[in-house]
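Quick one - first record:
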Amino acid sequence: MSETEKQALYDQLSTIELDKIPPIADLEALLKQQEADAANQKITPLIDRVAYSSDAALVEKVRPLGLQAIQEGKVAALVLAGGQGTRLGFDHPKGMYNIGLPSGRTLFQMIVERLLRLQVLSKAEKQIPLYVMTSPINHDETVSFFESHNCFGMNRADVIFFQQGVLPCFDTNNKIILEEPGKIAVAPDGNGGIYPSLEKSGSLADMEQRGITLVHVFAIDNSLVKPADPVYVGYCIDQNADCGNKVCWKTDAHEKVGVVAARDNKPCVIEYSEITKEMAEQVDPTGRLVFGAGNICNHFYTLDFIKNTILPNFGNLYHLAHKKIPYYEDATKTTVKPTSNNGVKLETFIFDVFPLSQRMAIWDVTREDEFAPVKNAPGEASDSPDTARAAISNVAKRWVTAAGGNLTGKVDSDQCEISPLTSFAGEDLEALVKGKDIECPFAL
């Protein structure tokens, strides 16, 4: 190895905390035991813990609690933005994607402008800080994108970037795999890597220094996300929750989505493959699916829960994936791409921490108002830029009608938009639209 390769290998190894990674054999034994235990654990719904955004009286009760916490500078927003738009045919960070609205707003811009509007609504003196979790493949481009757009109106100091971590890949003898001279094989640590990454990057300390006590975490691909949603945050405050999960009820018993439920009375996300046909189709007296709380990666945490409960217990939350991992072969001095599984990658899931919660709050929202993911390529029938654009447009039209406006023109247009800087959730639109004909498409 050259001196450069030696230094690169040393630097890479220096970032790995092996003392926090159990031996692979121990992990496999632990996971087998967990699977065996799970087979004997009773899966029950958490429907009695769910509160509904359709409960107008409850919404009016908890919204002021959330707005007050924002005003006092206690709330931060954190977006999981480590992915590329590969499935969209977009070779850049997904947050840079423009879904085709009249304004050309990207997913990142919509989030920032909603936070700026929320600052106005809450009468907060300080901006709501936005933490952006990137990954090694898109970090520099993401930071550059924000800076080239002046952070869309936010103070640069209030947009904090930190990278999702990577973990070493191991062979079956618990040895770290060398991919090439000066470089070990690594893989992203999954969206559960948010927790150690917050700590290692200094972002957790930054939150403490700012006086943040409540964190709203969400995925970049939901175009209708309400960052730092005061109703959701307020409900979690009202319930004295240490952890919260916003859900959308399943529209179909066999929709392929994980649901929030319980194993032995501990909250968790149950994968759809783990639910029997009978469980999936079970309904309550009103006809509502009992196991219907669909997980949409929209979470609430107290900083205390992250710091004092999640991080000390994180070493027991790894999953193993047996994979074909390229390795350096000394005899041939080349990197070999194996044809069969030769090692394991470690990963974590963000919801793996749910069983640690003592007081989980579950907030159910309507899909048409709050969940329009952008995952699939344009033209796809679901979860595409087209379906997201239509959802945003439909929300805008409903807001106009609710504020007393009269829709005219092409009312089925998917080119109707209300600036996030104008309204966060349909408020304060009367002066713009009440008693007026609003011709579709429109941009307010």
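second record:
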Amino acid sequence: MKTVIIIPARYGSSRLRGKPLYKILGREMVLRVADICSKVVGIKNLYIATDSKKISKVALTAGYKVVMTSSKCLTGTDRVAEAAMKIKSDIYINVQGDEPTINPIDIKNVIKAKVKNSKYVVCGYDKVHKFEDASSINLPKVVVNHKQELIYISRALVPSKKKGDLKVDYLKQVCIYAFNRDQLKKFNSRKKKSETEKIEDIEILRFFDLDIKIKMTRLHSNSVAVDVIEDVKKVEQLLKNEKKIY
């Protein structure tokens, strides 16, 4: 099955403007993500979707393909969906452009899970690590059932505990998604966020209103997303500690 990776990259991030072009150990963040993704599908099956001429220029200069998208895209998945309508493939992988420490093995595992579960949207998850703050609103937490299906995802601490002394091993979303063309077409056709999606500001929640189930695949990821400027130092330190720059 043909698989492409589309990296959505928006210049006007509300929390960190120009985020894709922030340099991580001297290389633009979106290029670091692209470097990792190219190891999985090759440069010919990799696209950066953006509405920014600045991002486009940096990507093209580095040898990567670019799909220009509307500045009105509501979310990264809307941007991926718009780009996907111009690209023929069986599987479309959305790798967020703010995950410069993502593990290529995790991307491969999401692809494998999608091949096995074609009717599902597939998303990665992992435990919340000790160096992460589970209560942070920048870290979406997931609740998964025994079938590895997503029950809910929230910026709040879920599942919530009634008894204060109860130990909860919180799980987090790892922002690698897998779709087929029809799923992306349905997602983009709404042209507005669902009510719960709007409240949580988590785009994958829109699939609940579309009656499309989400299969979660367990990853073993030390990836740190860059949401605010303080995260840049965390990512650089993680890369230095691992002595591995993707």
